[in-house]
């Protein structure tokens, strides 16, 4: 009771609160919501605003109980009604979470990312999956490497001007300089690694998108030997079009193979050129069917080829998105 008397009348103390903040003009406005209800509101699960807001007020600082003066609201939002201002903050503002909640969210996303990556990558020699622990250690290695490279680059950038301005520095002979220079990796490899730097999990992206980034980084840098688990497909095509000649470039699988499909020029040969390993193939009636394993990167090219060249007389069915072998 005494606390209420000693507090200014426009101050309200709230606990167990989730904040939503929106900067408008030069002011930052906040609303106090129940935990976990903001995302439910934005996704359409929760439709009752009373279940979302702890109190229907706009604050300058919820933790201090400072409500926003009417003059500040008018200056920032114009003639909008108070309820509409609250809705704009709720729908467009940034959700603020506590340190404990943030750590729990980060840990949950991290575990989900590792689980996805562990199910999609295999050892290229054994085709067996790695344990989540090994995947996590490999990603930690990449993250540490990325942070160390950033720190080194910053230090180099800071010291390079001074070194360049040192008039007493002698210029080495051309031959010695060439020998001293480290030989950089090929441009294509450099570009790939720049694009797939892994710095760790964040809470602002979905686990699925971050898992894809993690897989690209692991494949680019190979802290442990990894490759994408192959897809298992069933391809069906009418025998009427199998021997038709095809113009255009061959798929990479056909060009890099052992010679079996190097002379690919028919629809059948081109389809087999996409298949890394044939499990079975047969002719049933007027249809040819092949089941085999395809690298995920070749799936789109195969699907497009069948769609364009067979004129509706061929189809691709995914039997397994990621074929792995487990101990």
From TrEMBL:
All residue ranges annotated as the Ribosome maturation protein SDO1/SBDS C-terminal domain in the record: 262-321
Residue span, Ribosome maturation protein SDO1/SBDS N-terminal domain: 16-103
InterPro entries: Ribosome_mat_SBDS_N_sf, Sdo1/SBDS, Sdo1/SBDS-like, SDO1/SBDS_C, SDO1/SBDS_central, Sdo1/SBDS_central_sf, SDO1/SBDS_N
Region annotated Disordered, chain positions: 145-199
One Pfam family here: SBDS_C
GO terms (BP aspect): cytosolic ribosome assembly
Location(s) in or outside the cell: Cytoplasm; Nucleus
Domain of life: Eukaryota
Biased amino acid composition, Low complexity: 148-171
Alphabetized UniProt keyword annotations: Cytoplasm, Nucleus, Ribosome biogenesis
Span of domain Ribosome maturation protein SDO1/SBDS central: 111-229
SUPFAM superfamilies per the UniProt record, alphabetical: FYSH domain, Hypothetical protein AF0491, middle domain
A single cellular component GO annotation: nucleus
Primary location: cytoplasm
Alphabetized GO MF terms: 5.8S rRNA binding; guanyl-nucleotide exchange factor activity; large ribosomal subunit rRNA binding; rRNA primary transcript binding; small ribosomal subunit rRNA binding
Family per record: Belongs to the SDO1/SBDS family.
Assembly information from the UniProt record: Associates with the 60S ribosomal subunit.
UniProt cross-references to PANTHER family, sorted A to Z: RIBOSOME MATURATION PROTEIN SBDS
Name of the featured protein: Ribosome maturation protein SDO1
Origin species: Coniochaeta ligniaria NRRL 30616
């Amino acid at each position: 009771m005494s606390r209420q008397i000693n507090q200014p009348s426009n101050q309200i103390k709230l606990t167990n609160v989730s904040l939503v903040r929106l900067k408008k003009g030069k002011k930052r406005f906040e609303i106090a919501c129940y935990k976990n209800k903001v995302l439910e509101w934005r996704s359409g699960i929760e439709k009752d605003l009373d279940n979302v807001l702890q109190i229907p007020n706009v604050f300058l600082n919820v933790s201090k109980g400072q409500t926003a003066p009417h003059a500040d609201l008018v200056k920032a939002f114009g003639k909008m009604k108070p309820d509409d201002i609250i809705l704009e903050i709720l729908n467009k503002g940034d959700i603020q979470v506590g340190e404990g909640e943030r750590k729990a969210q980060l840990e949950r996303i991290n575990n989900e990312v590792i689980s996805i990556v562990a199910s999609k990558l295999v050892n290229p020699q054994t085709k067996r999956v790695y344990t989540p622990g090994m995947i996590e250690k490999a990603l930690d290695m990449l993250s540490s490497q990325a942070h160390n490279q950033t720190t080194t680059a910053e230090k180099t950038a800071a010291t390079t001007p001074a070194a360049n301005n040192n008039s007493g520095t002698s210029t080495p002979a051309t031959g010695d300089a060439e020998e001293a220079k480290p030989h950089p990796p090929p441009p294509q490899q450099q570009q790939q690694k720049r694009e797939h730097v892994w710095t760790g999990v964040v809470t602002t992206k979905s686990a699925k998108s971050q898992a894809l980034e993690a897989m690209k980084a692991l494949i680019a840098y190979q802290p442990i030997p990894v490759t994408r688990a192959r897809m298992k497909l069933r391809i069906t095509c009418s025998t009427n079009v199998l021997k038709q000649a095809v113009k255009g470039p061959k798929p990479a699988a056909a060009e890099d193979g052992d010679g079996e499909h190097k002379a690919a020029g028919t629809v059948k040969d081109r389809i087999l050129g996409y298949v890394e390993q044939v499990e079975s193939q047969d002719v049933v009636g007027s249809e040819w069917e092949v089941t085999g394993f395809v690298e995920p990167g070749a799936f789109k090219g195969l699907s497009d080829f069948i769609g364009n060249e067979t004129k509706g007389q061929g189809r691709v069915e995914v039997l397994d998105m990621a074929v792995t072998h487990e101990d």
